[in-house]
């Protein structure tokens, strides 16, 4: 039996426990989940190192999954554009059952291998693309079929699973094993397994974005400024990194289209017409662009 489907005898009388005890058990499970994700850091690091040159060469990030796992993958992916400025056109989110499955279950979708291959191949995966499959059981047909098809196309494949001996981890070039074991509520992988997946994907995508130069001195210097709060945050970052009066900072951000990284270069003396070329020479790294004009 798949470990996440097993019933843990410790929780056999869970339904008659005091609420505080139930919550304590659930909280303990969440702590276990994040510890499991942290223990997987060496595997996640290998995935980041393999993915970085492909994404730097213009490849896409493709998240694939079904049900809870698929939605967790989607959640990680959709945050990359507002947080790190990752181009939305280089992000592909494949969920078994399509858009309808975002808000409700689509019967039989996770078992449809033909749909998985069709969905993936319609995007024309190539050697610079990175395809991430997420499945608690490690055997979800939709996810495994997509990963298998991506590997045939030469894409880098990453598998994230809570079942160490599942098919997904065998198929993926970069397996990430998150052995969270039985859930407090048997089979409910939205709990411990889902938390471990979310943590591991956060670790992977954030480390990848850092490696690609979207973070400088712990700040999201490529974030999208889409509201007043973020405009104030952008101004604070430019002030911290390059200084200047309120008017000077506002002027630099306006000239840079709201981008912190470019505004910092302008504030430190880089001519407006040379900003893009300097960043390109240094692979988008603000640190190197500042150190080696």
UniProtKB/TrEMBL annotation:
InterPro entries: Etherase_MurQ, Glucokinase_regulatory_CS, MURQ/GCKR, SIS_dom, SIS_dom_sf. Residues 51-214 form the SIS domain. This is N-acetylmuramic acid 6-phosphate etherase. Keywords: Carbohydrate metabolism, Lyase. CDD domains: SIS_Etherase. It comes from Acidomonas methanolica NBRC 104435. It comes from the Bacteria. GO terms for biological process: amino sugar catabolic process; peptidoglycan turnover. It holds the Pfam family GKRP_SIS_N. PANTHER family: GLUCOKINASE REGULATORY PROTEIN (PTHR10088). GO terms for molecular function: carbohydrate derivative binding; carbon-oxygen lyase activity; ether hydrolase activity.
């Amino acid at each position: 039996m798949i470990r996440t489907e097993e019933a843990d005898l410790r929780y056999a009388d869970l339904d008659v426990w005091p609420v505080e005890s139930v919550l304590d058990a659930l909280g303990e499970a969440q702590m276990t989940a994040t510890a499991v994700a942290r223990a997987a850091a060496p595997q996640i690091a290998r995935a980041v190192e393999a993915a970085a040159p492909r994404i730097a060469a213009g490849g896409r990030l493709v998240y694939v999954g079904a049900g809870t796992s698929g939605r967790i993958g989607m959640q990680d992916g959709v945050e990359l554009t507002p947080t790190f400025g990752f181009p939305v056109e280089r992000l592909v989110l494949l969920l078994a059952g399509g858009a309808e499955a975002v808000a409700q279950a689509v019967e039989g979708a996770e078992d449809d291998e033909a749909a998985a291959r069709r969905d993936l191949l319609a995007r024309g995966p190539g050697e610079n693309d990175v395809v991430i499959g997420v499945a608690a059981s490690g055997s979800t047909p939709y996810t495994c079929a997509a990963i298998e098809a991506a590997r045939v196309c030469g894409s880098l494949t990453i598998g994230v699973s809570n079942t160490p001996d599942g098919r997904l981890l065998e198929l993926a070039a970069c397996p990430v094993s998150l052995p969270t074991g039985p859930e407090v509520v048997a089979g409910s992988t939205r709990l411990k397994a889902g938390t471990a997946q979310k943590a591991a994907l956060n670790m992977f995508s954030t480390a990848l974005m850092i490696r690609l130069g979207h973070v400088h001195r712990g700040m999201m210097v490529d974030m999208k400024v889409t509201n007043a709060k973020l405009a104030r945050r952008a101004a604070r970052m430019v002030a911290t990194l390059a200084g200047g009066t309120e008017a000077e900072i506002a002027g630099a951000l306006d000239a840079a289209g709201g981008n912190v990284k470019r505004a910092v270069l302008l504030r430190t003396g880089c001519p407006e017409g040379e900003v893009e070329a300097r960043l390109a020479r240094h692979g988008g790294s603000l640190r190197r662009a500042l150190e080696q004009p």
